[in-house]
Amino acid sequence: MSPLRLQGPRLIIRSTGLSDAAACTTLFSNPQNTELEPRTPPKPPSIADYEARIKKWQEDNEAGTSAFCVIECPALTGNETFQKVGNVIGFGGFNEYQEKDGLKIGNTGVLIDSSEWRKGYGTEAIRISLDGGFSDLKLDVIELETLTRNAGMRAILERKFGLVGKERVEEEGHKSMCYRVTKEEWAKRSE
After folding, report:
1. pLDDT digit string (tens) for 134-177?
2. What is the helix, strand, coil percentage profile of the chain, to 5?
3. Labelling 4: which of 69, 127, 128, 187 has CA 20 to 30 A away?
């Protein structure tokens, strides 16, 4: 599969490259960014860790099983509150693609750096992922999942997009809210 590149009014969601290792390291080293993730890194990540992960993500993208991406805001330059590399403000893409009962299903989500919260970037990134997932990737269904305690993401999914989640308890014991939207449902919401 070709590298993924989806664009909205302010953001670009694109496949990760080795040049993104420093930005990913910075993003995932911020405890505020990972406190609402189901699996936090056991140790602070290094650039070498992310170079290895990015190589694996690129292989998975080429195999068509996932598309891990960075989220860029090209208009931002020199934001002192977040020591970002380039204009990377988050992480997203599609964690997994699968085919089930004749349907192409993708699982997506976003993580926005805490210094960029409450600026509408999470909402825009989800919208770009849903629009692009259905139009560019030709998915039939997109699933999203967040921890039950992640009030910000739940508000985006439930209030902004009208999605209804189902609670699930994971093997690790944390509770998640799972959302599912079909291409047809999204088309009606987007009218």
Report:
1. 999 999 999 999 999 999 999 999 999 999 999 998 777 789 99
2. 35, 30, 35
3. 187
Q: Is the pLDDT of residue 28 over 50?
A: yes
Inter-residue contact 2 to 137 (CB < 8 Å): no
Grouping H, G, I as helix, E, B as strand and the rest as coil, residue 61 is helix
Indicate whether this model's pTM tops 0.85: yes
Cα(112)–Cα(121) distance, integer angstroms: 7
d(CA 122, CA 71): 10
Give the up-direction half-sphere exposure of residue 74: CA atoms within 13 A in the CB hemisphere.
Answer: 8
Bridge partners (DSSP) listed for residue 99: 104
Strand partners, 103: 100
Distance CA 8, CA 132 (A): 10
pLDDT tens readout for residues 114-145: 999 999 999 999 999 999 999 999 999 999 99
What tens digit of pLDDT does each residue of 41-73 get? 667 789 999 999 999 999 999 999 999 999 999
